[in-house]
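Following the same procedure, sequence and fold were stored together, as reproduced here:

>
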Amino acid sequence: MSDADSLRLFVLDTNVLMHDPTALFRFQEHDLFLPMVVLEELDAGKKGVSEVARNVRQVSRFLDDLIGNADKERIDEGLPLPGPCNGNGNGHDDQPLPPAGRLYLQTHNLANELPAYLPGKNVDNSILATTLSLQETRQDRLVTLVSKDINLRIKARVLGIQAEDYYNDKVLDDADLLYTGVARIDGDFWAEHGRNLESWQQGERTYYRFKTPLVERPHSQQCLYTEGEEQFEAIVKDHDTDGTTVQLATDYRKGHNSVWGINARNTEQNFALNLLLDPEVDIVSLLGAAGTGKTLLALAAGLQQTLDTRRYREIIITRVTIPVGEDIGFLPGTEEEKMAPWMGALMDNLEVLTQSEVGGEWGRAATDDLIQKRIKLRSLNFMRGRTFLNRYIILDEAQNLTSKQMKTLITRAGPGSKIVCLGNISQIDTPYLSETTSGLTFVVERFRDWLHSGHITLARGERSRLADFASEML
């Protein structure tokens, strides 16, 4: 097979460009084809302030730059796509550029009748008819339809068209390979690692320096533990070829070490509180199924650091407003009043944290009033361009955010702020997102080697025995 035969022609569906505007430049040396109906759909989706509308407008700008002043003859020949770089960066372009494909726009009618068992002339069928025609006219290329729409890919395969999902935003191959943030040390820990050991105190913290490797590939802020009578729990603070430095974890399972009235119930929750209360950790991601305590732990740590130690000025909570059932429609009121129905989990956990009997009803009312003044509910729609100083920011249901949305939100954090990302990647409600392409998965993988980030996957449910049984059996 020659090099020309190995090149492919990818037909892009509209949702690929709506999902990632830079998809035009992600196919290396292969060629792209945009049906005219895709351009029509992009034109229809350009209005508004949503993330999709912004992506569509960015695609239009990319296309405008690519076309430039080209006449129809040049467009028919295909517009050259830029390679990953333009020269060697020092003003000399004598270095060979990486191979790049061409972009073809539909400039004439590609007639092809769909089978009678596929009736109708909707957009999807028009894209399928165009792809079938390309298969007949461009037999020198392997024509592939790329779409985030599962049903369109199914119909394409029924018609004998090769169809693929858009994989460029895929963070890892399997969600089971996602970094958990916790590692168990097997064997007799102190017998194996206690010989070449240094220890010291720094303030209230205890540190150990081990010369022998504790785990195969340690990460910063990774949580290590042993099982047995002499239980050891520590967090990796530094690691290199000469050894690993760990900080002994504080035990928040005991009553005197409670955080805003609650205690950790298992090892993962204890590590989560250690990371949430560590001022050196700027971003914490907590994954886990319903009932594992993600929201409760994040709120308790936020309240203690906002109201008790005054490390942060206030707590800001936001989340994606995607309904599970039918949408309840327009909501009147201010921004916080509109967000209130989406914050049921917040209110439920605040009831747990403010149920103290000290002071009676008057004391609880005063506490509720103080908390309401320090907790702000904010919509994602108004986050762009803002900067939060000394804030404790909770991104709830973060699994429904794209990687681009996560970048937009995390870059809002100013000096002295901390971001906590909560979510369950097995409950994704956003169209075209999966466990391996979720923005939450993106953050966990990209931040796991950074010194000031921590991650914990909460495995054990602590809500109730009924909820635990339902999670396993239903």
